[in-house]
């Protein structure tokens, strides 16, 4: 029996009394992935990206482990909810226009001490001030640096279009604008190199593309390390007591951790290891989050149909954004139908071994987004469910 076949047998036994659709997290794999992230971080603390977990119980579990400290959140409403739930170090990774949230933040000493907001433009300070509604608490601020690699005079760009702040002079000027403004304090810098951390460099069957990605990423790491260090030096001249410099992501942990200017690493996807993180030379994780759909039809030889399955991930549309049939091995989508909202045909000789009611296990393309489809996660240890915990959705929290 292969390792994957053994996993399928374990998951089927653990969920034998549960009807699919059902979602699980394999805690042995989850904990092993957490250990690997800590190893790769080389002693620097890892701030957990909540977007990639979306389950308070699992955020608590990983933050109880040595090597993890703090949360990187994705909306202001989520940040405030987490802070009220007892998480005392929450960095909001994206600028917000949530006026009600800012009013709440500025009026509550506990929230103001726990939550750091992201800006890359002084106009965002105007919005926060206009939303204060009398709240006078000092708002903690993090400045975001653009990490994109630009070549040929900027005509070629690798990296997400995020912050407009690119040079040390630009970031330092915004830091000075914050320092001059009552009610705000710069406490950190963030730079997320998604074109390194979130792009696989070993794409199966694409050796030339993989080689090109590795060359691009090597150049991007060199350029960013130099520029990030200069930015940090410039900002520290304005803010000598800067608390943190955050960088990285699951795919670049060890590279980012090697930079002296970086004090902490962000990571989250590496806990669940969705399918988009299969194509890396720098690390190999264990799939920890899976969902099962039930076989409801057998339309013909070599075909079964499962209920549901149309759970595409965010990003540029493409086949790589679809969940992948994982267990049993050997199933694939019908190219004329793909993953459907209500039903999904699956092809392959192994389909003939599946019976009505059997489970087919899938891996989502991205971490965290799976939890927008399920109210609960069943936590599996060995071949048994040891706990069932709510996702954000299960707690009635759908932030985006």
What's the quick description here?
The longest helix is centred in the middle third of the chain and has 32 residues, at 207-238.
Secondary structure: elements and pairs:
Layout: H1 3-14, E1 22-26, H2 27-41, E2 46-49, H3 56-63, E3 68-73, H4 76-84, E4 90-92, H5 99-107, H6 109-114, E5 115-119, H7 122-131, E6 139-144, E7 149-151, E8 156-158, H8 168-179, E9 184-191, H9 194-197, H10 207-238, E10 244-247, H11 253-257, E11 264-267, H12 269-272, E12 289-300, E13 303-307, E14 324-327, E15 332-333, E16 343-347, E17 359-363, E18 376-381, E19 384-390
Parallel strand pairs: 1-18, 2-3, 2-11, 3-4, 4-5, 5-6, 6-9, 9-10, 10-11
Antiparallel strand pairs: 1-12, 7-8, 12-13, 12-17, 13-16, 14-17, 15-16, 18-19
Helix pairs in contact: 5-7, 8-10
Task: Give structural notes.
The protein has 400 residues and is α/β, with parallel strands linked by helices. Helix content is 32%, strand content 24%. It is built from twelve helices and 19 strands. Strands 1, 12, 13, 14, 15, 16, 17, 18 and 19 form a nine-stranded mixed beta sheet that branches. An eight-stranded parallel barrel has the order 2-3-4-5-6-9-10-11, surrounded by five helices. The longest helix is centred in the middle third of the chain and has 32 residues, at 207-238.
Largest sheet: 9 strands, mixed
**Class per helix and strand makeup:** alpha/beta
Average predicted local confidence, pLDDT: 95
Uncertain runs are none
Q: What characteristic shape results from the CA principal axes?
A: globular
> What is the count of helical runs?
12
> Can you count the beta strands?
19
Question: In angstroms, what separates the terminal alpha carbons?
Answer: 42 Å
Helical content stands at 25-40%
Beta fraction: 15-25%
Radius of gyration: 22 Å
């Amino acid at each position: 029996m292969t390792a994957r076949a053994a996993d399928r047998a374990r998951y089927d036994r653990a969920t034998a009394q549960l009807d699919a659709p059902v979602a699980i997290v394999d805690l042995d794999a989850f904990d092993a992935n957490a250990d690997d992230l800590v190893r790769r971080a080389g002693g620097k603390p890892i701030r957990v990206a909540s977007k990639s977990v979306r389950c308070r119980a699992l955020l608590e579990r990983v933050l109880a482990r040595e090597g993890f400290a703090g949360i990187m959140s994705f909306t202001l409403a989520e940040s405030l909810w987490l802070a009220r739930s007892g998480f005392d170090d929450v960095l909001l990774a994206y600028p917000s226009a949530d006026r009600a949230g800012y009013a709440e933040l500025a009026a509550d000493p506990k929230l103001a001490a726990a939550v750091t907001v992201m800006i890359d433009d002084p106009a965002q300070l105007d919005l926060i001030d206009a939303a204060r509604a009398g709240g006078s608490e000092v708002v903690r601020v993090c400045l975001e640096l653009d990490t994109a690699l630009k070549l040929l005079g900027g005509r070629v760009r690798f990296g997400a279009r995020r912050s407009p702040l690119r040079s040390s002079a630009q970031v330092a000027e915004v830091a000075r604008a914050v320092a001059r403004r009552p009610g705000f304090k710069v406490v950190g810098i963030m730079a997320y190199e998604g074109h390194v951390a979130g792009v696989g460099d070993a794409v199966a069957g694409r050796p030339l593309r993989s080689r090109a990605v590795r060359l691009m990423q090597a150049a991007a790491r060199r350029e960013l390390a130099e520029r990030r260090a200069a930015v940090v030096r410039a900002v520290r001249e304005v803010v000598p007591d800067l608390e943190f410099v955050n960088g990285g992501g699951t795919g670049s942990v060890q590279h980012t951790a090697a930079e002296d200017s970086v004090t902490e690493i962000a990571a989250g996807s590496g806990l669940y290891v969705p399918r988009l993180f299969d194509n890396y030379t720098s690390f190999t994780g264990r799939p920890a989050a899976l969902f099962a759909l039930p076989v409801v039809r057998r339309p013909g030889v070599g075909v079964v149909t499962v209920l549901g399955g149309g759970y595409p991930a965010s990003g540029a549309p493409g086949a790589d954004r679809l969940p992948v049939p994982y267990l049993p091995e050997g199933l694939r989508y019908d190219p004329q139908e793909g993953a459907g909202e209500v039903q999904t045909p699956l092809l392959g000789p192994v389909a003939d071994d599946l019976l009505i009611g059997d489970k087919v296990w899938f891996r989502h393309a991205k971490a965290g987004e799976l939890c927008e489809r399920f109210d609960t996660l069943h936590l599996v240890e060995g071949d048994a469910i040891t706990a069932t915990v709510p996702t954000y959705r299960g707690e009635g929290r759908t932030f985006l």
